[in-house]
Amino acid sequence: MSGTSPLVGSFVAADYAVFAFMLVVSASVGIYYAWVDRGQRSSADFLMGGRKLTAVPVSLSLTASFMSAITVLSNPAEVYRYGASIGFYGVSYVITMVVTSEVFLPIFYRLGVTSTYEYLELRFNRATRLLGTVLFIVQTILYTGIVIYAPALALNQVTGMDLWGAVISTGVVCTFYCTLGGLKAVVWTDVIQLGVMLAGFLSVIIRTVAVQGGISTIMSDSQQGGRVDIWDYDMNPLRRHTFWTVSIGGTFVWTSIYGINQAQVQRYISCKSITQAKL
User: Fold this and answer.
1) What is the reported pLDDT for 10?
2) What's the whole-model pTM score?
3) Is residue 98 part of a domain?
4) How many C-beta atoms surround the C-beta of residue 174 within 10 A?
5) Distances from the Cα of 195 to the Cαs of 31, 41, 202, in angstroms?
6) What is the rounded CA–CA span in Å between residue 75 and residue 42?
7) Which residues on adjacent β-strands are paired with residue 271?
8) Is 57 inside any structural domain?
9) Total count of domains within the chain
10) Residue 214, φ and ψ in degrees, nearest 5
11) What pLDDT is attached to residue 125?
12) Can you tell me the distance from the alpha carbon of 209 to that of 218, in angstroms, rounded to the nearest whole number?
């Protein structure tokens, strides 16, 4: 442990080995699919995995894509500070999945486009497509910067690992396997990474329960330190979070992501059938 703070430690050899192992595995997946699919004849096969993927790996990939460090770090803080009303996002998720699978997905899937912005050109004109593409690129650059910086900052604060070392290593490896392996590499590395994330969550829960003496003790501590309000049905739209603002407002937010976001659409149209895509 560091002499400056009892909360900040440092990586030992085993920790660095695990971190390096994850990077090597991710890079290896990219190399594997670059070799296996070296006979691909079109960019569509590269970008959509030949449209041969199934529901399970794609759904896990979708989960991993938007369960970033931002989510992992911010949601507990949100609940602790403002209460658990964001739990009503579960309602918005259900509505969003129905709307996406029955309205947006069939259109994109049957058109066979590799980009949602191709649809804008088909529906309107090339200028609209270019505008949408540029806005998406800007948004993605800003979002990706935060997504990479957040876990690097967490590692730096908790373990003392070099901040820029974490940023550069993660960014380089992700770029490497995406460029070599295409969508298949992205999907399967997401599956592996999600498994590691869930294992981490589970280990934290088990450790916390073992140390603090059970769920009831943890809930008691959280009630003393923060807020656990959830049953708020106030109709005032100016309130921060209520059932109505989260479930209804959240439906529009998540539909904009799952319905038309390129990162999502590109994955579900890579499925081998529309039934698999809807699942």
Assistant:
1) 67
2) 0.76
3) yes
4) 19
5) 20, 32, 11
6) 41
7) 53
8) yes
9) 1
10) 115, 165
11) 92
12) 8
